[in-house]
From TrEMBL:
Recorded topology in the membrane: Multi-pass membrane protein
UniProt cross-references to InterPro entries, sorted A to Z: DUF423
Keywords on record: Membrane, Transmembrane, Transmembrane helix
GO cellular component labels: plasma membrane
Primary localization class, coarse: membrane
Coiled coil regions, renumbered to chain: none
Keyword rRNA-binding: no
Identification of the protein by name: DUF423 domain-containing protein
Organism for this UniProt entry: Pseudomonas xionganensis
Amino acid sequence: MARLWLLLAAFTGFTGVALGAFAAHGLKHQLSPEYLAVFQTGTHYQLIHALALFGVGLLALQRQGRLINLVGGLFAVGIVLFSGSLYLLTLSGVRGLGMITPFGGVAFLLGWLCLGLLALRLKPEHG
């Protein structure tokens, strides 16, 4: 699974940078300042969680387990639901899409909570 998380980190990092540049240069004159800020919030959270997925991938190289995969899955779902809904909202203008965003936020929170649980389960190293 480490390979999956690292590939997903690379993909979401790449697309996060591309979408951020697209917003800064291509959408600057197409969207209202409020919608541009919403779009940029989506890219911000996507990039943060791309790095988090990278960390999950590195951790999965060292340890196996369902909890590690749950963390990665929750971060990935959070990116799709949170950032994806913000992108669609700003590009389509359909305000109802904003109802999806909190589910992505909850997925992010649960991912971080599971990462904390994983850390608590680690045995201290003696050196």
